[in-house]
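Action item from last week, closing it out:
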Amino acid sequence: MEKIDVKIKAVKERTYPILIGENLLDDAYEFIRNVTDAGRFLIVTNNTVYSLYGDKMKDDDADFIIVPDGEEYKNREILNTIIDKALKMKLERKDAIIALGGGVIGDMAGCAAAMYQRGIDFIQIPTTLLAQLDSSVGGKVAVNHKLGKNVIGFFYQPKLVLADTNTLNSLDDRQFKTGLAEAIKYAFIEKTCNAGEDFNLFEFFKKNRDEIYNKNHKILKQLIKMCCILKSSVVNQDEKEKGLRAILNFGHTYAHAIEIVTDYRYYTHGEAVSIGMKLIFDLAKEIGLISDKYYNDSISLINDYGLITKLGINPGKEIFYDAMLSDKKVKDKKIRFVMPVREKEVRFYNNIDKNMILRGI
């Protein structure tokens, strides 16, 4: 088992663990009770995950709520059903909410934990690759609005992240690639994360493609660990996304707009991100921020993993641009992009011409 301690400075520094390994669900409550004094637990999950892992999480002190699966259900209505369940259980402030599932489950459960009784303990048990290496780490929890992605939410840190890599065996190819898109993102931002370690993720991906797709647990555990270290380093430096943390949204300015204009139904989040990264590299090449070699190497890496790079719908440029203006990084009505400038490095740009932004679309 690998352990990473995430340090949160905020008002008073505190630390919570990320545990990564096989068969961790077998001892889940032992790990959970080491970090919380909760007497009862509300487990938020969906039908698919419950059918696979619900039995492992049954406990005399725990109850489940099954919510619909999919980004389109990450909304205030479903959030209210979780709060309703907590109220019916009469959960107290010392109790806890557990997220058992992917990023959507983690976001909604985290929002509910932040809201209920003005904040109760929150445990993340991510079961997808995307959630294990990215969305379960860092304490950003939110639900969507029809006009914006993740615009209703909190910065609310979990007490524990428990990543059992055995759960990745049940992922289909599409969901696995969804996680790989977020993982590959870290290869493009690694140096700017200031983690104090050089993992050379770019070369790691080039070297280990077959092992990753064969779900070699040793390699996947290593990949998840590296991504979690990079993200936790950024979070430690900038928990509330006042500056540096926005680099984690590399490719996401386009991606969130894609999700908005398709009502969160057409693409998975990772698919939207892979398209968004391609568009960002196109834009960076056109305005002369990166060399032809770095552009070609980066696009080759995305293509080698079979990720989607073309937008299969035509929402109209003005509709798309309006969706981009709802991005949380917009300031003074200017879209702020996380742009590649050289290998493993990114910077912020907010003065890019509208027509150039939309040319790739």
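Closing note: The first strand starts at residue 2 and ends at 8.
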